[in-house]
Amino acid sequence: MSKNLAKMSKKILAVLSAGSEEMEFTITVDILRRAGVNVTVGGLEGSDPVTCSRQVVIVPDKALSDVSTESFDGIFLPGGLVGAKNMCESKPLGELLKKLESEGKVIAAICAAPTALLAHSIGLGKSITSYPSTKDQLAGSYKYVDDQVIVQDGQLLTSRGPGTAMVFGLKLAEILVGMEKSQEVAKGMLLNGEYKLN
Amino acid sequence: MSKNLAKMSKKILAVLSAGSEEMEFTITVDILRRAGVNVTVGGLEGSDPVTCSRQVVIVPDKALSDVSTESFDGIFLPGGLVGAKNMCESKPLGELLKKLESEGKVIAAICAAPTALLAHSIGLGKSITSYPSTKDQLAGSYKYVDDQVIVQDGQLLTSRGPGTAMVFGLKLAEILVGMEKSQEVAKGMLLNGEYKLN
Fold first, then answer.
1. What global pTM score does this model have?
2. Nearest to A190 among B33, B189, B197 (CB)
3. Which of A7, A83, B14, B142 is buried deepest, with most CB atoms within 10 A?
């Protein structure tokens, strides 16, 4: 049975860059792993420790350049203005995003990271949300939603900021492994109640 | 003015151990730094990278043994069952907690970490909360509260788990630097609304 489970377990690539928002990153990776998702942390700049937006230092599992041939069920981009800018400017990340988009895989981005979707022409015209300060950049190329905490449009899942990261992580878990597991994770986190954010 | 601000800025020691809950740790440190608190991450086992409860690897700023002579306005202990167990068994951490308690400094613990307060006889008899599964251990030595997300009793601040970590971090920021700054941080995180947890 464990072999079957291993075969079936979903694989997500979590991209981490200098200046990524550590809370959005860690909440999402933690929730996905609690849900049994196999998460690989790929360092945009390599495999060295990464200093995040509020100076928490996180070590990637691998360099992003070393995972490009692996197969994933989806990709997750955390926010942080500097981290997102680095993601906008990364040609290898752009190629990976295009490949995953064409394969119909899940593409999840939070906070400022949806700007990297625009930079690499991913999901143009779809409904998305983002950190409010990045709305003007995105509104011309996407159907911008600003009254929802998370927005799913087909393979694209976007969200707004640190305060919405738990809901985002749980929704991503739900997409990958189902509502039952996602709710079990929420319960273990003591997040059972209504969760009203704006 | 920047010199005065530097002089006035509050210093918190955030303890990180193998098996600490990375989401609770990162949320709290991130929020405190957003609030202008000077946070030092002290590694319980040294300054090497620490593998947390869901395999996120975080690098401490210093070994805990290298900060014991520094002065802090408070200490923060994240949860995670294994991390909290390590904190229970650490004699140097126990001595540091006793010193900070006697100086009237803030002692903040979330999830399973209040068990380390018990192990080192900190704040016995005070009102606390914790992750529900640790209630039985704590209820004989403290006034255990299980219908509140955060509990403050004098210098002691405790909370329940990952889902309550944002409220906990914001309350700790409020205690250290005031309500106005804490609310500004919450707003920047897009955490303006009601926040109903259990």
1. 0.95
2. B197
3. A83
